Every structure is written in C-alpha cells, then in structure tokens.
Amino acid sequence: MSKIYVVYWSGTGNTKAMAEKLGEGITAGGKDPEITEVDRIKAEGLKDEPVFALGCPSMGAEVLEEESMEPFVADLEQFVQGKKIALFGSYGWGNCEWMRDWEERLRNSGAEIVGGEGITCLNEPEEDTLSALYDLGKKLAEL
Ligand SMILES: Cc1cc2nc3c(=O)[nH]c(=O)nc-3n(C[C@H](O)[C@H](O)[C@H](O)COP(=O)(O)O)c2cc1C
C-alpha cells in the first residue's frame, strides 16, 4: 500500500483533528496515511512524493507557525514544482489570509493545490469540515 504524507503543526489540537480525518479519507481511498508532526520530518523527506498534504493554523498575524512550519515550507518551495498538495488548517478570528498566501506561495513554486484551495475552519472542525477533509483524503488517494 503506498503512503501519503500528512504533515502538520498544531498547538491546541484543532489542525491535528483535521489531519486525522484527512487520514481516514486516505485510508478509505486505499492508501496508507503517514500523519506526521512537522518537527519529526525534514522537507527533503517529501522530495520523492508526488502527492501529500500539509496542515497549519493561522498564527502570528495571519502567517504560518514560524518556528517549524515556516522554515519547512521555505525548504519545500525549492522542489514542489509539479507536485499535488492539499492544504488545511484552523483559524481563530481572521479572514483566512494565511491560507490564501500559503496557496499562492506554493502555486508560485509550481505546485498544484488539490481541490483548488485549502480547507479552513474556525477553531474546532465541525461536521461539514470533517466531511470535506474525508472526501479530500479519498481524492488524494486516487491521484
Ligand atoms: C499566537 C497565536 C496567533 C494567532 N494568530 C491568528 C491569526 O492571525 N488569525 C487567526 O485567524 N487566528 C489566529 N490564531 C488562532 C488560531 O489559528 C486558532 O486558535 C486555531 O484553532 C489553532 O489551531 P490548532 O489547535 O491546530 O493550534 C492565533 C493563535 C495563536 C495562539
């Protein structure tokens, strides 16, 4: 069974819950989700992966978490050309600017954002978000 990485950062568990539901969808689609905290993997670990998912909440002032996820994504930008990447994350009060910037950044580096945009949710993911993540996981497994 081939693996699909789901690499995430989560401070209070909301984005982690999203990662887990995405993983359930990947399993349902017949692939093996490798759900990994960003601190446990180097960007080069994704170099040979054509399809993967990244999750991070909105932090700072509408930016990625700066200690781990930001440098990880900066490294990824060097080699994501042609890769299909799903994005997701939770936010608390903003207008999802962090996600729009993240999508644009990866697109500018030549990646395709699976589904056209990242999945976002206010605080804890509710049923509609979880269902969208499950479907996205199945879609990733079929790519
Ligand atoms: C230091 C810090 C900065 C944050 N900055 C933003 C922000 O700029 N915009 C926003 O919508 N939410 C912001 N949030 C709220 C988080 O995105 C929100 O609590 C989210 O659900 C956390 O996800 P997690 O449980 O995966 O860590 C911030 C939270 C913290 C702790």
Automatic annotation (TrEMBL):
NCBIfam families from the UniProt entry: flav_short
One Gene Ontology term of the molecular function aspect: electron transfer activity
Native organism taxonomy: Bacteria, Bacillati, Bacillota, Clostridia, Lachnospirales
Name this polypeptide is given: Flavodoxin
Keywords: Electron transport, Flavoprotein, FMN, Transport
Cofactor(s) this protein requires: FMN
Recorded family membership: Belongs to the flavodoxin family.
Matches recorded under PROSITE patterns: FLAVODOXIN, FLAVODOXIN_LIKE
Domain Flavodoxin-like: residue ranges: 4-141
Biological role stated in the UniProt entry: Low-potential electron donor to a number of redox enzymes.
